[in-house]
Write a structure and sequence with these properties.
mainly alpha, 2% strand, flat
Amino acid sequence: MSTMGRQSLHAAMASGDVMEDRLEPDSALHQLGERIEGVEKGQGRQEETLDGFRDGLRGVRADVVRLSGEVTNVRQEIAGLESAVTDTRQTLDTFIEQYGRDREVSKAQAELSRLTTEWHANFAQRKQTRALARGLVHTLTAQAVYRNMVNTATVRACSEERLLLEPTYWLAPATLAVAANFRDEPEQAERAQSHALILDAAKANLFLSLTYSRLGDEAKAGAWIDLYLQSLDPDELGQEFLVVLDAIASRELGEKALGYAQQTMAGWNPDSSDYSVGTHKKINAHEGTSLTSRMLSLRSRVAEKRYRDLSETCGDQWEALRAGWELATVSGETLAYLRRMFPNGAEGMASVGTGRHVVSALERLIDQLEPDEADMHEKMRRLERVIEHGGDLQAADQAHEVSLTPDATPVSLMTLLDQAIFEPDEVRLGQPARRMALHAIWPALESAAQRFVALSRQSLPHHISLRVADWSCTVATDPRIVVEPGPLTEELATHIEQKTQVQSDAVVRRWPRVILALVIGFLTGALVVPFVDGMSRWIYLLLTFGMFTWMIWEIWSVPLRKKHVRDQGNRLRNDAVMTLSKALRQSEDFFEDWHEAMGDLTPLVQWGGQFKQN
């Protein structure tokens, strides 16, 4: 092939390649356009799908909103149902509670009806017996009988009928005895009295004594009151004894009754040894339970501020001195208290009462329920409270407890006497009765006061030691021995001055410290400072300066330290001398008051002598 042919062939091939190169971008663009169109079509389809999905979401949202509203309605319906259930439960609980109360009320009404029927069946006659007794013991009834205004046969018939209807009730034969005396039938009266004594000796004796007193027979009233007192237990006295004590003390039962009562109460009164106050600890152990504790509570207290310097210089002795001083004041404070409570002393005991205490005691005794009656009456009152409170047992119990009176609570004689003297508001006693209580308790009270004084005197030492600033002195406790404070204060001042001089002489130059400071300062300045730099050098320079300063202070500060010691000694001397002077004055006042307080026993005994005579 020629050269020209090869060139043409190469040119044709080159042009073909150029055409192919041109066709390939067009094809790629065409394909890309097709793909873009496909993408656009797919995007359109996706948008249609998204539009459909959005429409679905709107529907779902609407369904959710609708469902939320329905849930809210359901919740409201549930809340209403719960409220209805709660109301129903409360109604049911209220119904059950009310039903239980109504049942308790029904049971109480039925039981009360039964007890009321039983009460009338068993005790209705006692009401008539009490009414008859109340009428027979009245003074007007006696006058009506003596003036033949009332037939004695009627009195006898009424009293015998009461005995037939109530043979086990002590008041029925006691009433018959009174009626027999109106008819001047001593034998029948004695038999009736014996029958009453068999049933209840204490009440029968008291009833007859009060009756004879009201009818003007003081001899028999005294004899019966003596028997009544002998039948009592001094550890369990009923509340009616308070009224009887008022009547006896007011001489409404006569002089013999008063004498018998005083003798009996003296026999009841325990021996004064029971009020022993052997030690101060024993008194505190029984505080609030005996006569000694009552008297001890009246004692004066030591004013700590008044005797502050004395207490500080006495040391361990002060507690015993304070206790002994306070014990000595018991007699004087007791006398002052008794004078306030009994301003007229034993005066007024000779006056005779108007008889109101006898009337009150008789009314109380006649109206007093018997044990079987009281037990049934208590049950009936309890049931009435249940009915009043609509079956509420707790409220009924509280109301019943509030309504109870302490009349049934027995009291011992010593408690009664103690309260009559030291707690007059706790017992309902008149002034004559409280004087009588003081008369009964006086031997024990006087004995206790004497023992207090004896114990106080045992606690009083002949001398005490006062210690001030390592110096002590002995002072007599007898106020007749005059203690001159001058020599003691001078001796104390001399002691402190000598001690101060010794301390001042002990202040010398402390050469070991001087040498130590010199060595440390020299070694630091010569061997350390030249070989360090920066901050360390300044620190060691400061240490060196401090050591030389310390050395100079130790050499030249001796006069200053001596002066400081002397100044301290002077202040200590002045304070000690002042403290000792105050302590001596307070000691004089303290022991003078102590002896005067012990001397108050004599006025107390003399003041109580009038109760012994009466």
